[in-house]
Specification:
By secondary structure, this protein is mostly helical. It is built from ten helices and eight strands.
Length: 262
């Protein structure tokens, strides 16, 4: 069994390598080397500044740089160069957010990554549908699958954020300062929603919070993340329907692999 798996992997690698032009091989090599150099530079900066909190994220990014190539080999496909570069940047983006504090000094970095995630996962979902079914004509079904695939991954990622915040004490679900509250708990009558407006000060255990408002527990962030990721998937769906699925960033190499095995 292990021998057969080894032969299949060698065939897949040979087909993948053979499918790349000289320019594509060069661009992939340069992209990976630039990514690894950037991660190494970030690691040196963190150590120099004695900022050890994000070292694990930085070290893990050495492997993240290889994710586009791993995905190509694992699913026997080839990305076009714009998609490959986009995948490289997306793989490095969590490190940029954590190590360079873009998650905290900007209001848009996290949302940008989520909308990009919706785009990436929808495009991959489209390829996955065609790979599993071998049918390139059922365009509407492929779009529905891609949309559902992307949204499902978004939901599972929010599960991950919630689990980390609950079990590990992290703050992946960024809090939002709200000025108004509406809740049944604020009313004395059953079924009647009470509300508080213009919240400008909140105290917990006698300590006044530094924000001028009520700090939620990540609900707004979670819903907004899923909304923008769904928006990214919808953009892909619209593009694919208008393009009639003619220009996919993924090329399936399974047929060439099968020929080589036979």
């Amino acid at each position: 069994m292990e021998y057969c798996a080894g032969i299949r992997y060698e065939c897949r690698s040979a087909v993948y390598t053979g499918s790349l032009t000289k320019n594509e091989k060069t661009c992939r090599l340069v992209s990976v080397l630039v990514g690894e150099f950037f991660v190494l530079l970030t690691l040196i900066i963190l150590i120099t500044k004695k900022e050890y909190t994000h070292l694990a994220m930085c070290v893990g990014s050495f492997g993240m740089v290889w994710l586009p190539i791993i995905a190509e080999l694992l699913f026997s496909c080839k990305m076009n160069m714009p998609m490959f570069i986009f995948g490289e940047l997306y793989a490095l983006s969590p490190m940029l957010g954590e190590c360079y504090k873009l998650y905290y000094i900007t209001n848009w970095w996290d949302k940008l990554l989520h909308i990009c995630g919706g785009i990436v996962f929808a495009l991959f979902g489209l390829f996955l549908f065609r790979m599993l079914t071998g049918d390139k004509n059922r365009l509407f079904a492929a779009v529905i699958f891609a949309l559902c695939f992307s949204v499902t991954l978004s939901v599972f990622w929010e599960f991950t954020e919630y689990s980390c915040d609950t079990l590990l004490g992290t703050d992946m679900q960024h809090d939002t300062v709200v000025k108004d509250m509406h809740s049944y708990l604020l009313s004395d009558e059953p079924g009647v929603s009470g509300h508080i407006s213009d919240i400008n000060e909140v105290s917990v255990n006698g300590v006044t919070l530094p924000e001028a408002g009520y700090i939620d527990i990540g609900l707004h962030d979670t819903i907004q993340d899923m909304m923008v990721e769904t928006a990214g998937a919808l953009l892909v769906s619209l593009y694919v329907l208008l393009d009639r699925g003619r220009h996919s960033p993924f090329t399936h190499l399974k047929s060439a692999e099968a020929e080589l095995l036979n």
